[in-house]
Amino acid sequence: MFLLQRVRNAIVTSRIVGPKLVTCALVTIAVLALAELLAGPLRAQDQDSKKLLGQRLVDEVAAKHKPDLIYLGLHGKTPKSKNSVIFASTDSGKIGKKSSCADLHVVEKGIPVMEMKGKSTTVLERLLDSSGHTVGLIVVGFNYSDGQESEAAKLAKQVGEELAQQIPTKNKLFEAGK
After folding, report:
1. Phi, psi (5° rounding) for residue 31?
2. Domain check: are 58 and 104 in the same one?
3. Mean pLDDT by 10-residue block, N- to C-terminus, for the chain (178 residues)?
4. Is 70 found in the same domain as 42?
5. Dmax over Cα atoms in the chain, in whole Å?
6. Of 25, 103, 117, 151, which has the fewest CB atoms closer than 10 Å, so is most exposed?
7. d(C-alpha 7, C-alpha 31), whole Å
8. What's the pTM value of the predicted model, to 2 decimals?
9. CA–CA distance, 137 with 84 (Å, rounded to integer)
10. How far is it, in rounded angstroms, from Cα 100 to Cα 63?
11. pLDDT, position 3
12. Residues 142 and 75 in one domain
């Protein structure tokens, strides 16, 4: 829209001023248009590079498994918190909230939990790094209802493995950039 206004203004101006100025104006508009086209992806890339690795992984894995996956959250102690909190999530409103005692029990005991909630299923299990060390908790919600527990368990395990392969160490989860 902004570019169209520039073109319109240049054309209107061209009726009043000389052809050299019109050519200069059109070249300037072309350069600005090219800059805007190139800047779009650069802005998106810049915003993505500011995200923590944990959040980028959540975004990528969640997008890959839609529409079956409806929620993905990572819990753990961050460099800035003494308690376990949600540090990456598909629901940005949950980031920073404390993990519950039940969540922490899953991490401590290593026993996954599956919760059936009407037409959705939530699976809680340990979040591992690429060398198999526990770095936190993964909470995954699926569009699976009663009778689809095995599908939920299988997909939760797959999501956990995909995340683990991309987590070199716990500290890397809290670093920005690619």
Report:
1. -65, -45
2. yes
3. 48 54 52 45 43 95 95 94 94 95 91 91 96 96 91 95 96 85
4. no
5. 80
6. 117
7. 12
8. 0.71
9. 9
10. 26
11. 44
12. yes
**What length is written for the chain?**
178
> Domain containing 28: what range?
2-50
What local confidence, expressed as pLDDT, does residue 1 receive? 45
Query: In this predicted structure, what is the pLDDT of residue 108?
Result: 93
Q: Residue 147 burial by CB count (10 A; 0-12/13-18/19+): exposed, middle or buried?
A: exposed
* Residue corresponding to tokens 């290593």: 110
The per-residue pLDDT for 102 is: 87
CA–CA separation, 58 vs 91, rounded Å? Answer: 10
pLDDT attached to residue 38: 45
- For 124, 142, 152, the CA distances from 145, given in Å and listed in that order, are 16, 8, 9
Alpha-carbon distances, residue 17 vs 3, 4, 28, 29 (angstroms): 21, 20, 16, 17
Q: Can you say whether the dihedral through the CA atoms of 106, 157, 89, 71 is positive or negative?
A: negative
**One domain for residues 10 and 59:** no
